Amino acid sequence: MPDGEDYVLRPVMEGLCRYESVIDGTLSLADIGRLNDALDIRDENAHRAREAANG
Q: Cβ(28)–Cβ(4) under 8 Å?
């Protein structure tokens, strides 16, 4: 997406928040950052678990 919008919308697409909360200022950019960090950790943990399961 242009201008990094994918970073801002990723938590919305993952169901962690509503789009309205992003655009009306309910969530700050710091909140969006924390949510993205949590998603990155989740994805990394899932990747490691798959690697461990496959030997």
A: no
Quote the pTM value: 0.88
Q: How far apart are alpha carbons 28 and 31 in whole angstroms?
A: 5
Each of the 55 residues of the chain gets a pLDDT tens digit; together they read: 778 899 999 999 999 999 999 999 999 999 999 999 999 999 999 999 999 999 7
Give the tokens for residue 28: 């700050």
Give the structural domain span for 42: 2-53
- Structural domain count, the chain: 1
Distance of CA 41 to the CA centre of its chain: 9
